[in-house]
Amino acid sequence: MNFEVIPAIDLRGGQVVRLRQGDYAQETQYASAPSDLAARYAQAGARWLHVVDLDGARAGNLANLSVIEALVKAGMQVQAGGGVRADDDVRRLFDAGVSRVVVGSVAIREPERVVEWLNIYGEEGFTIALDTRRRENRWTLPSAGWTEDEARTLDELAPWYAARGARHLLCTDIERDGMLAGFNLELYRHLAQTVPQLAVQASGGVRSLDDIRAARDAGARGVILGRALLEQRFTLEDALAC
């Protein structure tokens, strides 16, 4: 399986933004229009684009669907989520041209529903997003835009999904998200050992090309690049060359 370098665009109010540690009060806005940024990423050679509807993640609806539909036209395969709660949300994203629907809060709160979607649309059509935070020696699973802690843990749900046919897992260490502190390699080594059948996408904290190589060596099958690209810490072309 290929190692994928996936640039990310986070949307709020139709604009490109980044949050620190998932905190909506710590938002940075960027001048680039989403469609222009996507076009640059496509020109650099990216095969995939990761899109997060932050408004949707917080409110529980697809608030930036028209923007996501426009981003699909940049020519990359798009995985997108944020606010996916119901069957209609999944259909609308696929109708918009999204290749993989990212399911987060619903994947934690209603896993049986997500397995139904896997069975209906196929396992390749979904990325299970189990974003995590280390608390009291447990990998907890905050949801609803990382604003609410759930009872289930990462070590409970990741194997559960792997046993039911899921193929793709996106896992962010929230404490590192947007902090440019490097990936939590311990987390990705742990996942590579416990759920080797899942293609894990590493996210949260990348700051250098060495971080990308380290995530690959730790067993991740892909990396999500957000703030580091927006702040030009390295080029996407160089990242893809990793």
From TrEMBL:
Pathway: Amino-acid biosynthesis; L-histidine biosynthesis; L-histidine from 5-phospho-alpha-D-ribose 1-diphosphate: step 4/9
Localisation: Cytoplasm
Main location: cytoplasm
Class of this enzyme: isomerase
UniProt key word Amino-acid biosynthesis: yes
Keyword Iron among UniProt keywords: no
Listed transmembrane segments: none
E.C. number(s) listed in UniProt: 5.3.1.16
Superkingdom of the source species: Bacteria
Keywords (A to Z) from UniProt: Amino-acid biosynthesis, Cytoplasm, Histidine biosynthesis, Isomerase
Family per similarity comment: Belongs to the HisA/HisF family.
PANTHER family named among the record's database cross-references: 1-(5-PHOSPHORIBOSYL)-5-[(5-PHOSPHORIBOSYLAMINO)METHYLIDENEAMINO] IMIDAZOLE-4-CARBOXAMIDE ISOMERASE
Name of protein: 1-(5-phosphoribosyl)-5-[(5-phosphoribosylamino)methylideneamino] imidazole-4-carboxamide isomerase
The gene coding this protein: hisA
